[in-house]
C-alpha cells in the first residue's frame, strides 16, 4: 500500500444495473504503480443515489450508499464502505480489536488480514459524502486521481422529495 499509485483513467461514471436495487453507478480504472500500468491493481468505486420506491400507498426510502476500494487481482485489499443499515460480521483474526465482532457503523473500512477482506473496523465519525470517502481512501492507500473528482450525479437534475 505504501507504493505511490495513480489512477490511469479520468473519473467517468457509468450506470451499473443491479438485480437488487436500481440507481447504481460505477467507476473503475487500472492503476499506475510507480511509472508502470499494473494489470493486477484496480481502483473501484460504486455509488447509489438516494431514491424513493413507491409501492401502492407506501414510500420506501432507499438511502445513498457508496464503496471505494483497491483490488489486487481478485482480492479487495482495502476499502471504505458507507451504507446505512449495513451489518458486517468479522472473521476471527488474532490481534485485531474487532475480531469476531459484528460492526453496524454507517461507515467502515475493509482491512486485508489473514482472513482476506473479511475484517472491517468502524470509521467514526462516519463519512457521509462520496468525495470525502474518495479523498480519505486516496490518502490511506497512497493513490492519486487522474484529474478532478467528478460526482456521478454531476449534471443531473434531481426531483425534490
Describe this structure in words.
This protein is mostly beta strands. It has one domain. It is built from one helix and 13 strands. The strands form three sheets. Strands 1, 2, 3, 4, 7, 8, 11, 12 and 13 form a nine-stranded mixed β-sheet that branches. Strands 5-6 form a two-stranded antiparallel ribbon. A hairpin with a 2-residue loop joins strand 5 (51-55) and strand 6 (58-62). The radius of gyration is 17 Å and the shape is globular. The termini are far apart. The model has no long low-confidence stretch (mean pLDDT 91).
Q: Based on DSSP secondary structure assignment, what is the total number of beta strands?
A: 13
Computed CA radius of gyration, to the nearest angstrom: 17 Å
The helix count comes to 1
Which spans of ≥5 residues are poorly predicted at pLDDT below 50? Answer: none
Distance between termini? 42 Å
- The total domain count is 1
Portion in helices: under 10%
Q: How would you describe the shape?
A: globular
The arrangement of helices and strands along the chain is EEEEEEEEEEEEHE
In short:
The protein is mainly beta and 161 residues long.
Which labels suit this protein?
nine-stranded mixed sheet; 161 residues; mainly beta; globular
Amino acid at each position: 500500500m505504501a507504493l505511490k499509485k495513480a489512477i490511469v483513467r479520468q473519473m467517468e461514471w457509468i450506470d451499473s444495473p443491479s438485480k437488487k436495487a436500481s440507481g447504481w453507478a460505477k467507476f473503475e480504472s487500472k492503476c499506475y504503480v510507480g511509472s508502470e500500468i499494473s494489470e493486477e491493481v484496480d481502483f473501484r468505486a460504486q455509488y447509489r443515489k438516494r431514491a424513493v420506491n413507491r409501492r401502492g400507498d407506501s414510500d420506501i426510502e432507499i438511502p445513498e450508499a457508496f464503496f471505494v476500494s483497491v483490488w489486487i487481482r481478485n482480492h479487495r485489499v482495502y476499502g471504505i464502505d458507507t451504507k446505512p443499515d449495513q451489518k458486517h460480521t468479522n472473521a476471527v483474526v488474532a490481534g485485531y480489536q474487532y475480531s469476531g465482532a459484528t460492526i453496524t457503523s454507517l461507515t467502515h473500512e475493509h482491512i486485508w488480514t489473514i482472513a482476506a477482506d473479511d475484517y472491517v473496523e468502524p470509521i467514526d465519525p462516519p463519512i457521509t459524502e462520496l468525495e470525502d470517502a474518495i479523498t480519505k481512501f486516496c490518502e490511506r492507500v497512497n493513490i492519486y486521481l487522474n484529474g478532478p473528482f467528478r460526482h456521478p450525479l454531476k449534471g443531473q437534475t434531481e426531483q425534490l422529495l
